[in-house]
Design goal:
seven-stranded antiparallel sheet; mainly beta; globular; six-stranded antiparallel sheet; about 240 residues
Amino acid sequence: MFDTILLTAARICTFEQQWPLTNGSGFFFARDQRLFLVTSRHVLLDKPSRHFPSRIEIELHIDPNNLAGSTRFSIPLYNGGKSLWRQGLDTAGDIDVAVIEIDRSALPAATLYRAFTPGHLPACGDAVEVGSSLLVVGFPLGFHDTLHHMPVVRQAVLSSSFGLRFKGEGYFLTDARTHRGTSGAAVVMRTYGQDPTRGDLPWLLLGIHSARLDVGGRDRKLDEALGLNCAWYADILMTLTAY
């Protein structure tokens, strides 16, 4: 037995042709009959750090009876010089979220995964209160269960009012301990009771972890880092996955 939430996550390795670059986190999101990989935009493209991968690879479970069985699945990021992913944008500027569609027919026949759906996004009846306990499901520094190809989770607290755009930006705050490689991880909250729209994933998908935050004027000798992170609201996925 294992928690199905772990099957939503995908470890992302970026490449320039055959040259490995970095690691990141992502997760699956399904809408209608389409399947998407969600991650942070800067995992796929980051001009300040001169990060320009041409493709990514994710690990897929390929044997429902043996979680140690896996394969690498390559996804190109460009076709004819045009990017294949969609990235977020709103009135405040760029949103550090990107989605890229996965061709279901190209997946191995026995691929084992779980995908969030629009039914996992918070609705009016879902109480998400400041201080709520959250999980960040990802691959910090690429660390994971290398035998079973599973992510790890960090516990977090919702550190700002959910539903308000912190400083006018499209994100909220968490206090999880995070590292490089966590970018693109799903930020989720456990739900209770039965909801058929969520199947065997009793979780709310609240956001997409992006980056740690700090105070520019912090005295690095006297003051500890804030230990806060920004997570972009997951409802942006409804825009990015629309036809």
